Amino acid sequence: MTQNLEPKLYFGDLFGKLDPEKRVEIIKPREVKRNETLDLIVNGYENGLENYGLYNKGKLEIKIPENEYAIYYIAKSSAPSKIPSNNITEFSLLLGEHENKTHFRDFTGLYLSALINSSKDKDFKIITNYLSKTIDNIGYKNRKNIDVIGNAELWVGCKMKRGKITVNGNAGWWVGDLMENGKITVNGNAGDGVGFYMKSGKITINGNAGERIGWYMEGGEIYLNGDYESLSNSVSGGNIYHKGKLIVENGRRL
Questions:
Q1: d(CA 157, CA 164)
Q2: Residue 158 φ/ψ, nearest 5 degrees
Q3: What global pTM score does this model have?
Q4: CB 187 within 8 Å of CB 206
Q5: Model pLDDT, residue 15
Q6: Which partner for 177 in 68, 195, 196, 237 could form a disulfide, CB atoms 3.0-4.6 Å apart?
Q7: Buried b (16+ CB within 10 A) or exposed e, 203-226
Q8: Could you say which DSSP state residue 209 is in?
């Protein structure tokens, strides 16, 4: 089992603007002791990476169900089910061993999402602040509560159904892409297209945000507590607030 998994306060952080209670000690992978459950998770992850590589080359004989995202289907098929939350946290601390593998960025977040979605637990902690590379698609089809300690990359909370995702760092483009409900909070900065095709739910960006905020947004609420580059010209519904002021109401700029 892992020792010292609970984050500890420290005086510096990767982003410089996080509140003290959001700052955590970077826990190093050597603190994680391998066990049978972790071996099962890692073996599934490595098999999934290999299968996705083969699929990309047209060498994997597998039929992807209609309307299923191919990478997620492969991740879900590779991931063991009903894994406890603490083991998923431990696995996140072993990801540094795989950073240089092909498809690390696009596959890893979907594999983590598959583990979380099938778990019986409700609350999860994913630690990424020791990694040199960021991860896409954390919280894909999410229904749980996920706390990310560090940065995330593209499509945080894509197709999110309910629950809560908190990124204690920065996030890339398309936060809340196709989000159906739930809450996403980014305590650092976010890239372009926040709320892309968002249908409902709530997104809060406590740092700065990029261009085309609310791109094809259909509903829900976006709260921008820092600066932003531009709003989208294609907002059909929902409300957008900037520093507490309503600037888009029901898709109409005020």
A1: 9
A2: -60, 130
A3: 0.89
A4: yes
A5: 38
A6: 196
A7: bbbbbbbbebbbbbbbbbbbbbbb
A8: B
